[in-house]
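Re: weekly structure request thread

Next one in the queue (309 aa):
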Amino acid sequence: MTGRICKLIGAPVQDGAGRRGCDMGPAALRAAGLAEAIAGLGYGVADLGTLSPPPPHPASFPNPTLKNLPQVAAWVEKLAAVAFAESADGIPVFMGGDHSLSAGTIAGLARRAALLGRKLFVLWLDAHPDFHTLHSTESGNIHGTPLAYLTGQNGFAGGLPPLAAPLDPRHVAMLGIRSVDAAERQALAGSGITVFDMRAIDEHSIAPLLRQVLERVRAEDALLHVSLDVDFLDPAIAPAVGTTVPGGASFREAHLVMEMLHDSGRVTSLDLVELNPFLDERGRTATLLVDLVASLFGRRVLDRPTRSF
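Done, posted below.
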């Protein structure tokens, strides 16, 4: 990743989540020093500001539980265009915002990869697979649907924009999963997606599992997008999320993931999602996310600052 410009893009999406507050995520990450941390590691940083909410998209779908579908559809369309444009000459870092934003960012990045004749792999760091369709979701929260949408599953026509370049399910790896609904479990079976849940991490440790993914990315000479949901982390260290699930990644596991990603030299884009500053403790989660991004961009263990909360 060295020698490239990192582009910070605020995506204050909260229409896909079940509670308010994610729209403040970009401001919290800026206040926690995200730009300064990346610049301090020798990268050029361009803060492109925070996107304005687009007008609602004309979208409808025969599931009465769906919440804010026109707003989410508009965000998906806008973020796909921004991700495609800004990935041409830099490393876009999307500061969210709930996880529905990834339906847009990854759609645009997949289109860019197709134009380049490259494969796009996605590393999904999350407690949830987010593999519902607009039909199967019972909560109606669309942040639980992006990976089903991106991989071309049935159940989105008329609701979210058509995909220019669907994501190959075999190029998706989920890490840290520990909360899966029955409909998602059934859909994931035979999908081709690699799923490493917390039991797999407990049994094998996190490094060998991630190494498998990175070796596949290297063998395919592929681009790699990382989508980091705050609830990938254990809520004891990262409380600022509306979908807490106990038993998540520890501080050291999370930093090891980021250090290995940096060593791979394959990461070309990043989502930081589901940070809800309204639920944080003195900026603790935002600061942790900044530290994790610093590890992704090359901060070594010996260079880690002491934190006091």
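The domain at 5-303 is CATH 3.40.800.10 (Arginase; Chain A). The beta strands are 5-11, 44-50, 91-96, 120-125, 172-177, 194-197, 223-229, 267-273.
Next request, please.
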